[in-house]
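Backbones bend. To wit:
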Amino acid sequence: MEEQQEPISALLSEFGTRLNEIEEKQRLVKDRILLIGENLVSTKEDYDRQILDFKKQINELTLDIKNMKQLNKRIINELENFARKTELEIFTRQMKIFQPLEFARVKDVRAIVQEELLKLIKK
């Protein structure tokens, strides 16, 4: 009977060993799955943060673009108030013709006339 128990106990011990190996492999797989799950969660959180940052940047850029459009509209509206090059050329020609710096004020003319009269009287 002992002879029959030896092969059975050998089979049972081998079965126990294999069962332990399978349980160890199962624990390793479970640990790996947990680690992969943690990595997945942290990666998702990182992506969520990045998406929020991108949304903030997009909102800031859209505000900047709106401000630039408004500024461009103001500049375009103000451009109508400026003189054109041809208008300035016409104005400079007219100024050269009239030479306003050579016009004398009434005061100046009176002073010149008095000087000349004094010169005549002295002679």
